[in-house]
Amino acid sequence: MAIDLDLCTGCGDCALACAQENNMPVFEDDSDLPKRVQFLDLMKVSNDRDAAYPDVEVCYIPKMCQQCEGNDPKNPKPPCVSVCPVVATDVGDDGIVSQIWSRCIGCRYCQASCPYEARAFNWWKPRYEGDFKKSLNPDVSVASRGTVVKCQFCSHIWKRERDRAVAGGELDINAVTYTPACVAACPTRAMVFGDLDDPGSELSRLLSREKKRTFRLIHTIDEMKEKDEKKWKAMMQAKNYPNPKVYYLTSKAWIKEMMKFK
Amino acid sequence: MGELIKRAIDTIKAEFNSYSTGVKIALGVMFFLTAGFVIFGIQILFWGLGYTDMSNLYPFGQWIIGDLGLVSLGGGAFTTGFALYIFRNDKLEPIINSTVLIGFLCYLFTFIFLVFDIGQPLRAWFGYTYPNWGEHLMPTSMLTEVIWCLTLYFMILCVEIVPVALKHKVLDAIPALHYVGHYLHRIMWILAAAGTFLSFFHQGSLGGGMWDIMYGKAVWFRAHHIYFFVVIIGATAGGTAFMTLCAYLAGKVMKKEVVPAETFHSIAKISGILFVAFFIARLVDVVLMATRWVPLFDRSYISLQGGLYGLWLLVLEFLLLAVVIVMLLPKKNREQEKRFLIGIIAGVAAITTDKLITVLNGSSVPNFPWRDYIWYWPTIQEWFIMLGGLSVMAMIYMWCAKYLPLFPHAEKHAHHEGKSQAVAE
After folding, report:
1. For A120, which of B56, B213, B221 is closest by C-beta distance?
2. What is the CATH number of the domain that holds A30?
3. Which of A70, B195, B389, B403 has a 20 to 30 Å separation from A46 between CA atoms?
4. What ipTM does this complex have?
5. Mind telling me how many Å the CA of A201 is from chain B's nearest CA?
6. Spatial separation of the C-alpha atoms in residues A26 and A125, rounded to whole Å
7. Is the peptide bond before A54 cis (omega within 30 degrees of 0)?
């Protein structure tokens, strides 16, 4: 996935669509943010660390599970998968880090290991106010209290699309594409979703075209690749980089600068 | 039925009144905490972890610190057993029963705290049925390793504790049980060796491996499992100090010499030497973190030491370690009661601080450059379950110290005293 921050207005439609599509519980008082269950978090980032008035700027970064790969693409091991004691989370052939709600014992080891704070725990029994229950999505199971949940790039939509394609006589199900709820909801088309392994996909073409504007969350390892490839290889082998599959695009230097710890 | 309850209450009353005022007050506090443990335990098990101060940003809290601390300090059981049965340090014989019981209690309550800590306690058995074994049966999840290894070692502790219970005068009078106890005692070295083997793995896994495999986090990641071994040394050092402290306190409460001074001196010496090894290992760990591992994340080690649980805790740990070494290593210091006591208390505190740093500081470090350090303050439910659990442990230990031959030396001593009195009369 790629998210163009220059196009993002921070409207929050993506977060809302995600919550609705994935049956996120709605509590009476959902202002208790650290305990809120959501897959997509709209992070407000400002350059007030490095700049002073009137140069202070603000941007919004939609952040979901980054679908990490780890340092070995042939044997993908995201930080959260290797730590799960009961194999409740795994990486599929599609590269999506999945989570089985009903297998999870709620130890939160995956949550602690995730550097992107992308996983949420159901601290309370999921509740739906008023008529919300009637609008639940039958394709996504409601997780019970005490389990960890996460964004799976709406892979249930892909399964639905594949079923539909097969029913329509399509034989190559890998050719079937889909659009996750957040991407479909984005009013400015800031989010692009596709197959990173397919050089002809819209996503791959965008990323190869916009190399200079591209970055990934909180690591300068990509910059290293251009400056010193030897060091970059050593750093990748040190297995400390989750190697996420979500790319962000921006033309603002301060946003990239804010990705660095000082 | 009513008669039975009345007799039970009378027994508890008589037991309570048999202690001095100071111990009575302590018992009162422990009963209160235990009541809270039961009430809030039910609340957490039935209504979930929403009542804790843990959150999506701070997923590990007080109970994990308790687990780490209890396993580490309970590690004194395998270290003492190994020194006694394999290295044949017979001076440790008078303290071994007590260490086995403490080890048993520490592991039992680690399981109890773990059950409280997981969101789905009814699925706790999934750890056995769906373990995350990797290639060549090397566990990829350290929690899988911990669950299995802890269970196996706990079984060994259960077997190790049987001969202690069977030595109770009522049970010992039954010939069959006497022989079972006797022969179990004879094969204890095998159990001690197996226990050491298992304990080595889960000490390292829970204390170190569980954290250093979280390779996405700068505060925890270390390559090559160096931390794994650092923590094993820490458990052997802190565990022996804890075993000594418990026996010392038991002697003070019971107002008699439960363990001869030479046993205390011997175990304090072992602890002191192990603390020197831990001091060096921890120093190497901090230096490696600062120079090799943290820079891989484009961060500096010192930048991870901010917030409420930052640098001061690290400094405190090293200060406590220095105190232990000064108090326990030189012979003249460890043979002086006050310095000996300061040494073992500092040892237990140093290992506890080490666990506080791992969990509290590790969880509070911001994951994004624009975020601040976060902090965590356990709720009343977390406090009561933690302190109530520790109170139950203390009360079981007190009861066993009084009614089981936990300290054979004290019994022998009392027996001799009684005999000499009778002769004098």
Report:
1. B56
2. 3.30.70.20
3. A70
4. 0.92
5. 29
6. 11
7. yes
| Full domain range(s) for residue A178 | 2-258
pLDDT tens by residue, B183-242:
887 888 888 888 888 888 888 888 888 888 888 999 999 877 788 899 999 999 999 999
Domain count, chain A: 1
CB pairs under 8 A between A and B: 163
CA dist., res. B129 & res. B144, Å (int): 10
- Structure-token pair, residue B284: 């190497």
Q: Could you tell me the CA-to-CA distances from B171 to B187, B391, B406 in Å, in that order?
A: 20, 28, 15
What is the C-alpha to C-alpha distance for residues A18 and A36, in angstroms, rounded to an integer?
Answer: 14
Q: Name the residue among B123, B141, B146 with its Cβ closest to that of A84.
A: B141
Which run of H or of E encompasses A98?
Answer: strand A97-99
Token output for B342: 């300061």
Decide if A1 contacts A61 (C-beta within 8 A): no
Distance, CA of B291 to CA of B289 (rounded, Å): 6
pTM for the model: 0.91
- Confirm or reject contact between B60 and chain A (CB < 8 A): yes
Q: Give the C-alpha separation, B47 to A179, whole Å.
A: 37
Alpha-carbon distance of B26 to B13, in angstroms, equals 15
Which residues from chain B sit within 8 angstroms of residue A114, using beta carbons? Answer: 216
Determine how many CB atoms are found less than 10 A away from the CB of residue B380: 11
Q: Which CATH architecture has domain B2-424?
A: Up-down Bundle (1.20)
Residue ranges per structural domain of chain B: 2-424
What value does the mean pLDDT of chain B take? 89
Minimum CA–CA partner of B130 in chain A = A86
